[in-house]
Amino acid sequence: MESMGKRKARPRRSFTPEFKAETVGLCRRGGRSVGQAARDFGLTGTAVRDWVRQAQAGAGERDGLTSSEREELAALRRENRRLGEDAGILKRATAFFATETR
Question: Where do the domains of the chain lie?
Fold first, then answer.
């Protein structure tokens, strides 16, 4: 009974862009539904659905960020976080030296 409701985390898998493109192509050409493609390749329906949405956004068929825009946004967020940490360090150093000089 102790283990009820507790699941082991499944290791995160990564897929090549070619594999994703092939899977999306099967769904978009009408060969398979998203659910059927997910079952056939041992994937989750959510993953395949996300890949299809991303491909549609990249092709301009759907609103959303393209892959390159997503990469740029992630890089800008990382830089913003780093700059915020730097500013925090400088604030603490300024406060420290301000009390030392009095």
Answer: 14-64, 66-102
For the stretch 37-94, pLDDT in tens is: 999 989 999 999 999 988 888 888 888 888 888 899 999 999 999 999 999 999 999 9
Domain 14-64, CATH number (from 1.10.1070, 1.10.10, 1.10.3470, 2.40.128): 1.10.10
CA distance 88 to 9: 35
For residues 20 and 1, what is the distance between their CA atoms, to the nearest angstrom? 39
Between the alpha carbon of residue 80 and those of residues 69, 72, 86, the distances in Å are 16, 12, 10
